[in-house]
Design a protein that fits this description.
Layout lengths: L8 E6 L2 E7 L2 H13 L2 H17 L9 H13 L4 H21 L17 H5 L17 H10 L3 H11 L5 H4 L7 E2 L4 E4 L8 E4 L2 H15 L24 H14 L7 H14 L4 H8 L8 H4 L3 H15 L6 H5 L4
Antiparallel strand pairs: 1-2, 3-4, 4-5
Length: about 350
């Protein structure tokens, strides 16, 4: 049954990748075009699917969406068992759409049903944000023994190189599969990333093990295959043979070998979390970490500072040891001479 006023999305795929989205709403088309021009591909893709889901649940034109509709959407998503972070992300897509619509239709009384404009006094309290409160997520890390088991299960140098780049070079999968031969500078063991999340070009580096695995992959497995394909990481089997690996293909690879190792909790971003946490634990300067991993805000590293109790206790003991000789009461407390 087609509901009156519903927005219909047409997703366009080329070579297995989503390349465009058209809807029956000019406002949504405009918004997605703006995002596509100014944000990273994965951000645009996330907005596309989050809005698609919202307007499937709430079959109205954007201008007709009310605050109550957003509450009904939240209840629907909660009943499906979705995480608070996922619900908030989808609400943020709707909120961003309305922010752009307000700019597009200046002079019209068009209010953001998710997050009304920040006001003062009683007006602000009457229109609070709909975002669900959520605890700050503390990134988990992968124990060394589990990392070893997982890497031992990987059968190819291609797969090992992929995972080393995610773990030790702190790259997102979407960035890894986009690497081209022209991005690699062997003399510095570096990779130039022209487009990343936030569209900030940056340089990342490979340690000797990652660089060695990359060379083994290129020499022993890639060789002279697919000379016209500039993507470094390609599929060797199936209908996608000779094409650049996709994010979905790498995620399936991780899921498969994690299951083989009886490590079902492993997922792609956990490797990056582990690598960044290790940098923090080894006291690398925070500005250097942010530059390396592609974070802008100093606050972006705060989740990685919420480390385990054992690590905090060890750091505390180390710091206190440095003060032992300077405390005037140290001898009194230990029973020694003043």
């Amino acid at each position: 049954m087609t509901l009156s006023g519903a927005v219909h999305f047409t997703i366009v795929r080329t070579g297995g990748q989503v390349t465009d989205c058209r809807t029956t709403s000019p406002d949504i088309n405009h918004f997605l075009d703006v995002v596509k021009l100014n944000r990273a591909y994965n951000t645009w893709l996330s907005y596309t699917y989050d809005l698609k889901i919202f307007f499937e649940v709430i079959p109205k034109l954007p201008q007709a969406v009310s605050r109550q509709d957003c509450v009904e959407f939240m209840k629907h998503q909660q009943q499906l068992g979705l995480a608070e972070a996922t619900i908030n992300r989808r609400l943020a897509a709707v909120s961003s759409l309305f922010n752009e619509m307000q700019l597009l239709h200046l002079g019209e009384d068009l209010r953001n049903p998710v997050q009304p404009g920040a006001g003062r006094g009683a007006a602000a309290h009457r229109n609070p944000s709909l975002y669900r409160r959520q605890a700050q997520r503390i990134p988990e890390t992968i124990p060394a023994t589990d990392l070893q088991r997982f890497f031992q299960a990987l059968p190819t140098w291609r797969d090992r190189t992929l995972m080393l780049l995610v773990w030790i070079s702190y790259l997102r999968i979407s960035v890894v599969v986009a690497i081209r031969f022209s991005d690699i500078e062997c003399s510095r063991r570096s990779i130039r990333l022209p487009v990343t999340k936030g569209r900030n070009p940056r340089m990342v580096f490979m340690d000797q093990h990652t660089f060695g695995a990359l060379n083994r992959y290129l020499d022993d497995e890639r060789g002279r295959l697919f000379p016209d394909v500039d993507a470094v990481f390609v599929a060797f089997k199936g209908p996608a043979r000779g094409r650049s690996l996709t994010v979905n293909a790498v995620q399936k690879l991780i899921d498969y070998y994690a299951t083989q190792c009886d490590l079902p909790y492993l997922h792609a971003h956990l490797f990056r979390h582990t690598g960044i946490t290790q940098l923090v634990q080894h006291h690398m300067a925070e500005p250097a970490i942010r530059q390396l991993v592609g974070h802008r805000s100093p606050e972006s590293l705060l989740p990685y500072l919420h480390l385990g109790d054992d690590f905090v206790a060890a750091e505390f003991e180390q710091a206190q040891a440095a003060f032992e000789l300077t405390r005037p009461t140290a001898n009194l407390l230990t029973g020694g001479a003043a």
